[in-house]
Amino acid sequence: METATKPNHIGRKISRIRELRGMKQETLAEELGISQQAVSKIEQSEKIEDEKLEQIANVLGVTKESIEKFSDEAVLNIISNTFNDSSILNGINFQPNFNPLDKVLELYDEKEKLYERLLQAERDKITYLEKLLKEK
Fold this sequence. Notes:
- The protein has seven helices and two strands, in the order H-H-H-H-H-H-E-E-H.
- It is mainly alpha-helical.
- A hairpin with a 2-residue loop joins strand 1 and strand 2.
- The mean pLDDT is 82.
- Pfam families: HTH_3.
- This is Helix-turn-helix protein.
């Protein structure tokens, strides 16, 4: 059985990376100093000059090689293997390996100790100043 190889369509890869970055064609065009229509034409092209690809990669914040090797399947695999809906808190993967209440209590204890040290420093200062006044 023969497997069909997917063409290495660089334009589609650029389009997908741009979309994943939340960038519009107009924004990419503006950053590259070209028109939106030119970006559309690039995204329809199967091959792109290395120099132009390097410029696009810089604007997208990726390397030229990452565009060339990009695949939707890899992105989907990464997302499906790392997504755990019970651990998402405001879009941040949050899985504490400690009890947050214990940390709050520790912070409270630290605050009390710090307050006591501050009070002691003030007492020492008052004692020192009283001693200086008595000497005069």
